[in-house]
Amino acid sequence: MKKIVGLFLIAITFFFATGTQAQTKVKLGHIDFATLYSMMPGLDSVKTIFEDYNKGIQEQYAAMQTELENKFMDYQSKMGTMSPIIQQTKEAEINDLKERMDSFEVTATQDLQNKEMELTSPLIEKARKAVEDVAKENGYTYIFNSTEGLLLYATPSDDIMDMVKAKLKITKPTPKKGVDSSILPQE
Prior knowledge:
Shape: rod-shaped
Helix content: 55-70%
Structural class: mainly alpha
Largest sheet: 3 strands, parallel
Number of helices: 5
Order of helices and strands: HEHHHEEH
Strand content: 5-15%
Number of domains: 1
Strand order of the largest sheet: 2-1-3
Low-confidence stretches: 179-187
Radius of gyration: 30 Å
Mean pLDDT: 83
Distance between the termini: 78 Å
């Protein structure tokens, strides 16, 4: 009998505890994370580093392209005077270079994606951390990313952009939605 009463008391306590938690007020917020990211300090230097890295890869590919064109033009200009064995060797060289270029292109694309991730990940993580800190400091239960297309409907919530910008010490004005920020006057 004592065990049944004990279990009953535990069940009642659990029922009231979960009922109280269910009545806790949910506080919703939203932020346009893409806009926040576009205003992050250091993004300009990340873009510059990435563009320089990309330029180096493009220059290497262009050098390979020039080498291929030169070999092909040389092959065409001497084709009538080459012995069959030399002709086969030249064709094999051209095909080998073309295969190396194709492989380079695939590897370079992956390398550029990795480099972009390496450069942008710290900024994204810093922005996410600031959003998390603002949410905790201000008692938000959920923060939604309101970037166009990701949030189809929500009950009214608070836009926490200004609080996160303050946390990150971003002083740039937030671009208005639907306005091309590149044509806005710069301060």
